[in-house]
Specification:
The structure holds 2 protein chains of 2 kinds. By secondary structure, chain A is of the alpha+beta class. Chain A has one domain. The radius of gyration of chain A is 13 Å and the shape is globular. By secondary structure, chain B is of the alpha+beta class. Chain B has a 4-stranded antiparallel β-sheet, covered by helices on one side. In chain B, strands 6-7-8 form a 3-stranded antiparallel β-sheet, with helices on one face. In chain B, β7 and β8 form a beta hairpin. Chain B is rod-shaped and about 100 Å long. The C terminus of chain B is likely disordered. Classes of the chains: A alpha+beta, B alpha+beta. At the A-B interface, β1 and α1 of A face β1 and β2 of B. β1 of chain A pairs antiparallel with β2 of chain B, so a sheet runs across the interface.
Chain lengths: ~90, ~170
């Protein structure tokens, strides 16, 4: 995932089991919001997924942190939201 | 799991690879396969069994459960009582054929096994020895050896915890 304020673009690419690989390149201005979605994963754990939701209601998966401290996660989400918001 | 995060103020770059996660899954999988094989191995060694030895002038007949083995007198080199893991085993050295092993009980059940050994030795040493019969019953508890299975299961569980609990990004698989 690359967010480039100079170029004004957001690029998200990845692959997952049982899903087609994806590659999304959109202007930063098309981003409506950055969503952090959490779900219970058993044994007191939570799984997180970071999405970029665009103004046309499509979305792109940016990050699925699997081993990260919550403070680090929140800090990075804040930084990404700030950069997208400044664009 | 390897994550690289860079924030220059103008550009945020975040890359994530899952290769390490797959490797961890494979490691756990291999561990459980080995554990299952160990359990099967130990269970196979601890099945309750009975051994009857009928020794006579022409050798001895060993009946182990439903399996009957005829050992000609001339082919028997020696018979010993040995320990294999935590079992007592009658080991018969043969002249031209491989050794013959018969489970004869848990460790400590040596008395019955010793009588079987003595019967075989008597038949081997003295062709004119009257026919004698001796038997022993393996009283080993059927099932896996808990001394191996419990630590193995705990170690496996610890590995799963290490994988699933989220410590920090410094834990790069």
């Amino acid at each position: 995932m690359v967010i480039d304020r100079g170029a004004g673009t957001i690029v998200a690419a990845g692959r997952r089991w049982f899903r087609e690989p994806w590659h999304v390149e959109r202007p930063l201005a098309a981003v409506a919001r950055i969503d952090l979605r959490s779900r219970y994963a058993g044994r007191g754990q939570r799984g997180h997924e970071l999405f970029a939701v665009f103004k046309d209601e499509t979305e792109a998966l940016l990050w699925t942190p699997a081993a990260v401290m919550m403070s680090t996660l929140e800090q990075r989400v804040a930084e990404i939201r700030a950069l997208v918001g400044r664009a | 799991m390897a994550v690289v995060y860079e924030n220059t103020g103008e550009v945020i770059r975040l890359t994530q690879t899952r290769t390490g996660f797959r490797v961890a899954v494979y490691v756990v999988g291999v561990f459980w396969v080995i554990g299952a094989a160990l359990m099967a191995f130990m269970a196979g060694h601890r099945t309750e069994t009975s051994l009857v030895c009928e020794a006579g002038a022409d050798g001895c007949t060993l009946t182990e459960g439903l399996h009957v083995t005829r050992l000609p007198r001339a082919a028997i080199v020696s018979a010993k009582l040995v320990r294999d893991l935590d079992l007592t085993v009658v080991r018969i050295e043969m002249d031209a054929t491989p050794r013959f092993h018969a489970i004869c009980g848990a460790s400590g059940d040596a008395a019955d096994g010793q009588r079987v050994v003595e019967a075989i030795e008597a038949a081997r040493n003295d062709a004119s020895h009257p026919a004698i019969s001796a038997s022993c019953v393996g009283r080993a508890v059927a099932g896996p050896n808990l001394a191996i299975v419990i630590p193995a299961a705990l170690a496996g569980w610890l590995l799963v915890l290490l994988m699933t609990f989220r410590f920090s990004e410094g834990l790069a698989w």
